[in-house]
């Protein structure tokens, strides 16, 4: 794929300015809000927004509203990505180092706040989880989407109190639950043992680098985790890497919503995900998405979406 001369010139012009190069470099790591970019660059939000608009119009980056915030990331288009990678590759990024240090600070603050939140809410997590969703309907739908099994190996990423393991674990020869929070893992251990499941391993680990072998699970679950993460697409790719040929990935999260207070009160970063966005991440990760399922709330809660995707039995190229 290539660009017309006009589009190439427009894209190069859009990239050809100091602040805009800095933005392109920052967005290489993760999607960022205008507020975060403005803080890292030390420039006002209107000024940063002008740069962002130029690059959005030129097709270099994508803008996506999320509740009252607006986030930006590199465009999904392969040609635009090639152009950005080439430009960033040529860049002697000594100046950008300071930006990346400030990005690390922003990230660290976010991670510390989220980790403290999970350590603190671990004992009440099962109650909090049911605040915004009709749990029994969601769990029945997850059960159906997982399929009857039996499963060779189930992996539950961001297992929390281990609810998905107790829901599906009895149909698995073995299961692994992974989480960053030790308090959550302790509660999961107690729940799994109470459920009489003895083939469940609970591991401390990061969803972005699970250190689990590729193509090692026939069912991978990511339940209500992605909306906390800075780079949900990377987590989807890591989850997909674990799915064996013929296996399945279930992602359960919120559909787009406007409950802004969940950011401050419960550390949510993203206010839900659109089907198109998730579908693209699943395809990019080498899986075949099935039709998404939307489960509207009983009263004034949130809609929960279940995205299922499969790795076809013959195609395990992306799993290695
Ligand atoms: C909202 S809870 C969901 C727990 C469980 N899946 C459930 O639905 O009950 C999110 C979990 O993701 C974990 N988590 C957040 N970031 C993570 C990361 N980078 N790697 C692994 N786990 C993470 C948190 O510690 C927390 O236990």
CATH architecture of the largest domain: 3-Layer(aba) Sandwich
Which molecules other than protein and nucleic acid are bound?
S-adenosylmethionine
**Strand percent estimate:** 15-25%
Q: Give the N-terminus to C-terminus distance in angstroms.
A: 26 Å
Question: Mean pLDDT, as a whole number?
Answer: 91
- The number of strands is 11
- In the CATH scheme, the class of the largest domain would be Alpha Beta
Could you give a short account of the major beta sheet?
8 strands, mixed
Indicate how many domains the architecture comprises: 2
Mind telling me the CATH superfamily name of the largest domain? Vaccinia Virus protein VP39
Specify the structural class.
alpha/beta
Domain HTH arsR-type: 1-95
Protein name: Metalloregulator ArsR/SmtB family transcription factor
3D architecture notes:
This protein folds into two domains: 5-91, Orthogonal Bundle (Arc Repressor Mutant, subunit A), CATH 1.10.10; 125-319, 3-Layer(aba) Sandwich (Rossmann fold). Helices cover 45% and strands 20% of the residues. The protein is globular, with a radius of gyration of 21 Å. The chain contains 13 helices and eleven strands. The protein is an alpha/beta fold. Strands 4, 5, 6, 7, 8, 9, 10 and 11 form an eight-stranded mixed sheet that branches. Strands 1-3-2 form a three-stranded antiparallel sheet. The longest helix has 28 residues, at 94-121. It has helices spanning 5-15, 18-27, 34-41, 45-57, 78-90, 94-121, 125-129, 135-146, 163-168, 182-194, 232-241, 261-266, 275-284; strands at 32-33, 61-66, 69-74, 151-157, 172-179, 200-204, 217-223, 243-254, 288-289, 293-295, 304-310. Bound molecules: S-adenosylmethionine. This is Metalloregulator ArsR/SmtB family transcription factor. Residues 1-95 form the HTH arsR-type domain.
